[in-house]
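COMPLEX REQUEST
Ligand: 1-O-phosphono-alpha-D-glucopyranose
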Amino acid sequence: MAYTKITKAVFPAAGMGTRFLPATKATPKEMLCLVDKPLIQYGVEEAVAAGCTEIIIVTGRGKATMEDHFDRSPELEASLEAKNKTALLEIARSVSKLAKITYTRQSEPLGLGHAVLQAKQIVGNEPFCVLLPDDIVDASIPCMKQMVEAFYETQSSILGSEVVEGDAISAYGCLDCTPDPKNPRLLAVKTMVEKPAPGTQPSQNAIIGRYILTPRIFEMLEHITPGAGGELQLTDGIKALLQHEKVYGFSYEGKRHDAGDKQGFLRATVEFALKHDKLGPDFRAWLKTFPL
Ligand code: G1P
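STATUS: Structure written out below.
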């Protein structure tokens, strides 16, 4: 049976965001704003653009503002309506209309593989997307949309991938792979390793925070043991999946920002501000006058 439809996207969002302290002491890192939108909303919009209608957010303690963000806000809407602020009213309403959003909890921080496993009952027996909200991909065709096309073509799990320089690979899952002769964006994966020690990496092909996985991944995730950093790693689950099914890396078209890192977040902020319809022109003019 060929898969012809992917409608669900899982967002692991239970992490403590320690790289962003003190900003993330009481605010979920997924709610940090790039210009005027929280990180997680960029990801949700990308999943919706790829055809997803059901979003599953795996949360933990202290993440309630995320739920409020995607919910209706009757007081705010009433106040904007009374003041006839229709454009702002539309912005506020459109967030709650993006998709059907379900929340499930990861009660212990046991790792990314464990976080994805928490979505098993809600996803059921279907292929699904996984988006890590820290990774923001700026692309003319949304990254997940490109990957969904590749999934329909291969009928196999697809991992977003990009080449990173030198020892930077040690911060990522790394693919041992060969390019597909028919589609140069596809990389046939032989095996993979999470956060290889510098000098031991099989390639410079990193996994980025975009995945499309077949439902068999849940069976694999139920049996993995702690890996890199003592955590239950999604990479190890996908490596186990390789024993049963093909898996492809996908070199997407676009630019990724690691918004989970302070430096990456600042760079993304400047680039997104420059591209912003309304704010961009003034911001560009101001930047040019800035004494560097
Ligand atoms: C996670 C994954 C890793 C992947 C990375 C992409 O790592 O475990 O395989 O390369 O996301 O951002 P983390 O950044 O959570 O350490």
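REMARKS: The two ends are 59 Å apart (CA to CA). The mean pLDDT is 96.
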